[in-house]
Amino acid sequence: MAVKKILKLKDHEYFWEKGDLHTHLGVVMEKDIKKAKSSVKTHKGEKLTVHEPNAVDLTRAMERGPQMPFLKDVAIIAFYSGISKESRVLDAGSGSGLIAIAMAKIAKSVVSYERDKRFFGLAKKNAALFGLKNVKFVEKDVYKGISEKDLDLVVLDLPEPWKALKHAEKAMKAGGCLCAYLPNISQTEKLIKESKKYSFGFAKTIEVIEREWVVDDLRLRPSHHMYGHTAFLTFMRRL
Known about the structure:
The structure is a single chain. It contains 7 helices and 15 strands. The chain is of the alpha/beta class. It has 2 domains: 5-53, Vcp-like ATPase, Chain A, domain 2 (Roll), CATH 3.10.330; 58-238, Vaccinia Virus protein VP39 (Rossmann fold), CATH 3.40.50.150. A hairpin with a 2-residue loop joins β3 and β4. The chain is globular. The mean pLDDT is 94.
């Protein structure tokens, strides 16, 4: 079921779907949550803020299984791929479902392949949090083929994406984008080398570095922690 409200009490955050909410500082009645505009109180008088969740909020409610891509990388995939509300997308390697979910917020339709049975149900459960109707999860190995046709984007979050290139070539529109999400540059090198055997070109590889700043009354400086290398993103066009 999709999350409908987020309630916050000090350092605690609660994702609400339906029914009364039980917190460590009291119960919030369902009827009070439904009619709340900006805040609500528990039966003990503790005040919680209430607001509608956005996509970033909902990522915090997702269940983790395999390593999730970072939002900084997912955002770049969405923009650099050039997808729109008319686009058809294939995501291979569903994992937690984050890439498929993010693409479904933009594209017309998304199909996501996952061959590992441990993660197949997880991605579907996470997508339900967002209330999405245009994303479909399929238990399938992309290395063995792609059933969909006329795809605008294929995302490969897999250890050996070059094994899917011949299938992607047949399934994609001319001018469509293929994106590979890889942790090691040696994998990226092999992907680009193998892509020359197929109708792909204009390869571009980037990594995204995110550094947050500490901003308060006494400090204005970079944080001691940052999101450095997480993955190499390689974008290619179907010729």
